[in-house]
Amino acid sequence: MNGLRLYGCYAAASIKSQLQYPASFVLLSIGQFLSTIVEFIGIWALFGRFQDLGGWTLSQVALFYGTVNISFAFADMISRGFDVFGPIFVKTGEFDRLLLRPRSAPLQLLGHELRLTRMGRLLQGALVLGIAVGLLELSWGVREVALLLFAIAGGVAFFLGLVILQATLAFWTVESLEVANTLTYGGVAAAQYPIAIYSEWLWKFFTFVAPLACVAYFPIVGILGVDDPLGAPEWFLSASPLAGFVFLGVALLIWRLGERHYTSTGS
Amino acid sequence: MICTPARPYLAIFAARFLMMLQYRAAAVAGIVTQFWFGAIMVMALSVFYMGGRGSASITRAEAITYIWLGQAFLGLLPWNVDPEIVLLMRTGNVAYERLRPINTYFYWLVRAMAWRTAATLMRSIPLLIVTSVLFEYVGLGDWSLRPPPSLEALALFVLSMVAVVFLSSAITTLLNISVVWTISEQGINIFTNSLVIILSGMAIPLPLFPDWVHPVLLVQPLAGLVDIPYRIYFANFSGAKALGAIALQVFWTAALIVLGRLLMARTMRRVQIQGG
């Protein structure tokens, strides 16, 4: 059985177990939807009052907002195993059992749980994206659709990389560090707006260190067809989501270092 | 030794308060996260204010002050159920609560007050110092937390924050009681979370919502958690208006305490203990 098929089995088992409690699944998804849509209500209210955000319109911002929320929702859905890695796997010594199996640990951790309740955020992102597409009157050719999908896929890779880095820390700290949430949830909060509105240090950080801008801001500017106030060249706008995959690759390499360093807690 | 009816409650408060002060690592993580979220909101709001064509009833400096106060006192918001109370429900130990020679409602209320204030104390002081003093020094004066315009505003703000502690704890206790029915706290947490964030003024300052919803936003109970005290702080509400706003906080607190006591009495009469 190859890795992909094995993952399919893990995912199917996880979905089946969550659907044993259909009412709980529906309510938690609605809750997720509501708790994420409040942020967009805030943005909508601010545009109602001030009309524009440094030259950007509400429907343009909605496109940034929808894209980054969809990416994060997918990543959050599949990354539960890494998210709880410190307390559930390292602290308990459970990780030893994973290492005994003839499959890579990251694959097994990905298969730990597929959180269906993240549908709430996914639907919310899709709704906002849909509204943006409806309002913007862009011409959607193959290039635009492909770039949007590329950006979303790159975004999933980026956020997955972040959660893997966060989990890697647990090899040393045992506990999982909540500070890392600053980059995941805080990153989503930052990328919901066009990153060009922030101070230079912040958008440089999000371009060259944690390349969140490369999977959200730059490709969306490419789709909108506006002049980039940050002055990125045309080719970069289309190629930038690659940075998300590179980031994931680097995160997996660092993970491997951590795995080598791992000594069981022995309990 | 003083022996008043309040004494056991003061002891409960002190014990829980000191226990909560032990969670320092969580406090550091909280401070970092709150700086980050505060900074993003401050930057976005600045751009809205500078480039926007609209006008608002509070100035940019006031809106920024509002944001930093919100981040500093985030811990006071009643956004979740007390996890220790959930454990009581699950294990059936809630039965012991009935054996104590004190009023269970006020016992839970005082626990909630200690829990919220201890968590907030550790986070708010560094945040307030950095955003008010340090920001000026490093040239971020534009983004800093401004001092209140008068001593009167400061005094009224302190009074209003005391009301926040009571209001927030009354809401928390209502949430705690509701767990008796649902057993799981997940659903309650996720729904109250969204309501509190948007209706208190944490998502964006309430004065920045469209003018036509202002009357409704002001009289609902959650405005008393964030919007009322902060607008008193920068004297958007002053004099009689500030006192009226504090009276509104007190009214909601009293109403929620009465409601909580009624629910507690009803719940505890028919509570069924899970075995074990």
Task: Specify the biggest β-sheet of chain B.
Answer: none
Q: Which whole number gives the mean pLDDT of chain B?
A: 87
Average per-residue pLDDT of chain A, rounded, comes to 89
Category by helix and strand content of chain A: mainly alpha
* First-last Cα distance of chain B: 40 Å
What proportion of the residues of chain A is helical, as a percent range? over 70%
Q: Roughly how many Å is the radius of gyration of chain A?
A: 19 Å
Describe the structure.
The complex is a heterodimer of chains A (about 270) and B (about 280). With about 270 residues, chain A is an all-alpha fold. Chain A has helices spanning about 5-20, 20-50, 60-80, 80-85, 85-90, 95-100, 105-110, 120-135, 140-175, 180-190, 200-210, 210-215, 215-225, 235-240, 240-260. With about 280 residues, chain B is mainly alpha-helical. In chain B, α1 (about 5-20) crosses α6 and α2 runs antiparallel to α3. Chain B has one domain. The longest helix of chain B has about 35 residues, at about 105-135. Chain B is globular. The mean pLDDT of chain B is about 85.
Give structural attributes.
heterodimer, A: 267 residues, globular, B: 276 residues, 70% helix
At a glance:
The complex is a heterodimer of chains A (267) and B (276). By secondary structure, chain A is mainly alpha-helical.
Set down the secondary structure blueprint.
The complex is a heterodimer of chains A (267) and B (276).
Chain A: H1 3-18, H2 22-50, H3 58-78, H4 80-83, H5 85-90, H6 95-100, H7 105-110, H8 119-136, H9 142-173, H10 181-191, H11 200-209, H12 212-215, H13 217-224, H14 234-239, H15 242-261
Chain B: H1 7-20, H2 24-51, H3 60-72, H4 83-91, H5 94-97, H6 104-137, H7 151-182, H8 186-200, H9 214-219, H10 227-233, H11 239-269
Helix pairs in contact in B: 1-6, 2-3, 2-6, 3-6, 6-7, 7-10, 7-11
